[in-house]
Amino acid sequence: MIRSGLILMIKDLAGKDKSAYAIGQEIGVSKNTARKYMTQSAQPHGLKGIKRGSKLDPYKAQLDGWMRQGVFNCVVLMERLRAMGYDGGMSILKEYVHPYRPAKSAPAVRRYETPSGKQAQMDWGICQYLDQNGVLHKVAVFVMILGHSRAKYIEFVSRCDLRSMERCMLNAFLYFGGVPKEVLTDNMKTVVAGREAGKVIWNTQFADFAAEIGFVYRCPKCGHEEQLLTGIGFMAQQEAATECENILAGIYGPKVKTALVAHPESAVSVERAVYQCGACGKLESRLAVKVSAPVRVSIHQHCDCGKIMHRIRAGEEMFCPVCLEPLKETNIVSAILWD
């Protein structure tokens, strides 16, 4: 019996119309042997079609029952099979279970809803466009979206720096016709400089910008949160006109009213400031009213308890109204925009 390689050579030479004698002379076999394999049809391998048994075969009926009960975890199935005497491997078990395993479906997620005017989100993106010559260009885009209405504002810019972001934010507020209470961002470098011990380290320039708008402070001791608005926004003139009427109505006392009546040309200015009561600890952002009269008249802010509140100026400490723990800039957890 000759090897399969010679048989293939015989068939190949026979396909070139060579005789059995010529083939025998060329490969070193008799002409009868060459003629035998020239006319012999291809025979399948003796083991072809024979399926080898698996160690898992005796347990497949039990496996099918467990899978009908919803058990597809191969680790759990393996533990049960071991208890029944199975000594095979994990691979054949996984191979058998895989076709029966139900397809994974994404879990339903409830959409996060925010009240109107409460929240907006902003971020940078990159867009591409082709010019008239077919050249591809990239341009940065600022995007702000309102959480409730999903209204969007986009602005294309040449740079993604802090000044561009501040300008885009103000343009977005003008476009929306107002300012949301909160603005969410990711850890962009123009907003967050880093983190230390789990606390946000704000970009100092952005902190100056946000300080004109507002912050949320969280007490590190008791977890109490305090929303402190420190910006007037686009309502400064309207607020000043309202406070002028309040002064003339005598709400701030006769001295302030007399000074404004005597000098009607005096300008009334307002700004948002943070006040704290030394008696009860109440912390609140209020309008600080100033009258530019020749004679300065002090306008005090009174707490609900009747005591005069102290204005917190730059660099001064304020305290948590619940546990009296000092609140610092590192306790800021998000920026608030004047609404």
Description:
It is a single chain. The chain has 339 residues and is an alpha+beta fold. It folds into four domains: 4-39; 57-99; 119-180, no CATH class; 204-335, no CATH class. The chain is 29% helix and 24% strand. It has helices at 4-14, 20-27, 31-39, 60-68, 74-83, 90-97, 162-176, 204-211, 236-248, 254-262; strands at 119-130, 136-146, 152-157, 182-184, 192-196, 199-202, 214-218, 225-229, 268-277, 283-291, 309-312, 318-319, 326-327, 332-335. A four-stranded mixed sheet has the order 3-2-1-4, with helices on one face. Helix 2 (20-27) crosses helix 3. Residues 330-339 have low confidence and may be disordered.
Structural class: alpha+beta
Question: What shape does the CA trace take?
Answer: elongated
Rg measurement, Å: 41 Å
Please give the domain count. 4
Q: Average pLDDT across residues?
A: 79
Strand order of the largest sheet: 3-2-1-4
Give the H and E element order.
HHHHHHEEEHEEEHEEHHEEEEEE
What is the rounded distance between the termini?
Answer: 97 Å
Estimated helix fraction: 25-40%
> Can you summarize the main beta sheet?
4 strands, mixed
Please mark out the parts with pLDDT under 50 across 5 or more consecutive residues, or reply none: 330-339
What does the secondary structure layout of this molecule look like, with pairings?
Layout: H1 4-14, H2 20-27, H3 31-39, H4 60-68, H5 74-83, H6 90-97, E1 119-130, E2 136-146, E3 152-157, H7 162-176, E4 182-184, E5 192-196, E6 199-202, H8 204-211, E7 214-218, E8 225-229, H9 236-248, H10 254-262, E9 268-277, E10 283-291, E11 309-312, E12 318-319, E13 326-327, E14 332-335
Parallel strand pairs: 1-4
Antiparallel strand pairs: 1-2, 2-3, 5-6, 7-8, 7-14, 9-10, 9-11, 12-13
Helix pairs in contact: 1-2, 2-3
